[in-house]
Design a protein that fits this description.
Blueprint lengths: L2 E3 L11 H4 L13 E9 L3 H13 L6 E4 L15 E2 L15 H24 L7 E10 L2 H16 L5 E4 H8 L6 E11 L1 H12 L4 E3 L6 E3 L4 E5 L2 E10 L16 E10 L4 H7 L5 E5 L6 E5 L8 E10 L7 H18 L8 E11 L6 E6 L2 E5 L5 H17 L4 H6 L13 H17 L4
Parallel strand pairs: 2-3, 2-11, 3-8, 5-13, 11-18
Antiparallel strand pairs: 1-9, 4-7, 5-7, 6-7, 9-10, 10-11, 12-15, 12-16, 13-14, 14-15, 17-18
Helix pairs in contact: 2-6, 2-9, 3-9
Bound molecules: flavin-adenine dinucleotide.
């Protein structure tokens, strides 16, 4: 038997802007009594909700499924991200392609499986295109160094038989309205989401069948014939548990000294006026990923349900093993993002940022997930290694399938991974990683 007191609860700096710009949601109750369930999922992010939905497909109606979320739905990293669901490997620098083509192909296949699942979720819960749409992925370069990244990535895509097209400066301007990008690389197979709206609608759809509790952090876990999850005002006893808390799996005492807790940061403009929109030009909705992995992600979204036309900028990554980001990192992000915005959109001088925020990612040194049955009938679907909209969906689906079916064709492919490798000791880890990231950010130069 294990008894674990949860040492830390999630804290995300700044507002979850994608959620703040939506109309208020009626929300879900807080657990305020002792209850029982057949299945409990802890965490209502991409992994938790994918696990819940897959369980509803696999289990009989009579099985009771409960989701416990520490915060409010869509207020955590799940609703704070840039909304790119990417099927292809993230890194553009061919130096990082140490693995075989087979490994890349396997990973692409699995990523597409997760994106298909998200698409089916969007269809089942009637989500409009502004919330989920299949779209191409465009990577933009603004320097010769960025172009080299794009070309080496294109070479790798050709090797594995993936289709792509190269966009010239004029085509990039026609898309973004900005003359900042001098080359682009377009691939098919991804999707774009309004992350908070997707998570909210997914939870609302699931709530017909699943009991969801918000503002209900799990503060103690005791294993047994029936496991017990204690929350500040109640408890749930359940035979099966899926922990979908990403980096906070470490706060539950699992995977110690194996997980990297990285914060990344974003800013969102106020609503753009119609005269600003005509000054900007370009398409109404687009997203650009940076050619340099340490560069800036930019999205332009058009008005959805009164939330306005806006631009969202993301950059800066910091390692914060305490799972909290200090104000100094938020200030650094603000300065960087204001500069990135100015460089790209000189025609939008005077447009302020209405929201600034940060959020957590969980990575491992060898890019492996913290996945599997970690105690009898307790599964971990954590450590998404950055691309959590896709990898989170995948690990949630995989945990549900492993728990109910034991195996399935794609699951066996997913399970072909090692455990996250051990980290170097502190303070060397944090000093070394933050210095390396600063160096790489400096090297990214104008791509920032
Ligand atoms: C600014 C930013 C931009 C990003 N852009 C992208 C992008 O474009 N594409 C992409 O794929 N990824 C992106 N990400 C990463 C992505 O958001 C995460 O990887 C993803 O949210 C992970 O999903 P998850 O479900 O595993 O974890 P989370 O979304 O973190 O969900 C875990 C949930 O568990 C809850 N929880 C934790 N502890 C407890 C507890 N004790 N009791 C109850 N609940 C608990 C948390 O409150 C949280 O809601 C970005 C992240 C940030 C911050």
């Amino acid at each position: 038997m294990i008894q674990k007191k949860i040492t830390r609860l999630p804290k995300d700096p700044g507002p979850a802007a994608w959620n703040s710009i939506l109309h208020p949601d009626e929300g879900y109750p807080t657990l305020e009594q002792d209850t029982t369930a057949d299945w409990v999922i802890v965490g209502a992010g991409w992994a938790g909700l994918a696990a819940a939905r897959r369980l509803t497909q696999l289990l009989p109606e009579s099985d009771k499924i409960v989701v416990l979320e520490a915060s409010r739905i869509a207020e955590g990293p799940a609703g704070r991200n840039s909304g790119f669901m990417i099927d292809l490997p993230h890194e553009l620098n061919s130096d990082s392609y140490t693995g075989s083509n087979d490994r890349d192909l396997n990973s692409i296949l699995l990523n597409r499986h997760a994106i298909d699942f998200a698409e089916q979720t969007a269809m089942e819960y009637d989500m409009p295109k502004a919330v989920f749409s299949r779209s191409c992925k465009v990577t933009g370069a603004s320097t010769q160094q960025g172009i080299q990244h794009i070309l080496s990535y294109a070479k790798h895509l050709a090797e594995i038989g993936e289709a792509f097209s190269v966009k010239n400066a004029g085509e990039m301007t026609a898309m973004t309205g900005s003359s900042f990008y001098i080359k682009g690389l377009q691939t098919e197979g991804g999707a774009m989401v309004q992350p908070a709206a997707f998570i909210r609608r997914c939870a609302r759809g699931l709530s017909q069948r699943v009991s969801i509790y918000e503002n209900t952090p799990v503060v103690e876990l005791t294993s047994g014939d029936l496991h017990t999850l204690r929350t500040p005002k109640g408890a749930v006893k359940s035979k099966h548990i899926i922990l979908a808390v990403n980096g906070h799996i470490q706060s539950f005492g699992f995977f110690p000294k194996r997980l990297l807790h990285v914060f990344t940061y974003a800013s969102m403009t106020r609503k753009l006026t119609s005269s600003e929109l005509s000054k900007l030009g370009g398409q109404s909705d687009w997203g650009i990923l940076p050619a340099d992995p340490m560069g800036t992600t930019v999205r332009k979204v058009s008005n959805y349900a009164g939330s306005g036309d806006r631009i969202i900028i993301r950059n800066l990554a910091t390692l914060n093993q305490s799972l909290e980001a200090p104000q100094a990192d938020m200030r650094r992000a603000k300065a960087m993002q204001d500069q990135s915005f100015k460089d790209r959109f000189p025609m939008l001088q005077g447009v302020d940022m209405e929201h600034r925020w940060g959020g957590r990612l969980c990575l491992s040194l060898n890019s492996m997930p913290a996945f599997g049955e970690i105690e009898e009938r307790i599964w971990s679907a954590c450590c998404q290694n950055g691309l959590g909209t896709v990898k989170g969906t995948l690990s949630g689906m995989a945990a549900a399938e492993q728990a109910v079916l034991g195996q399935s064709e794609w699951l066996n492919q997913f399970l072909e991974h090692d455990q996250p490798s051990k980290l170097p000791p502190e303070p060397f880890l944090s000093i070394g990683a933050n210095m390396t990231m600063r160096w790489k950010q400096w090297q990214a130069g104008k791509e920032l």
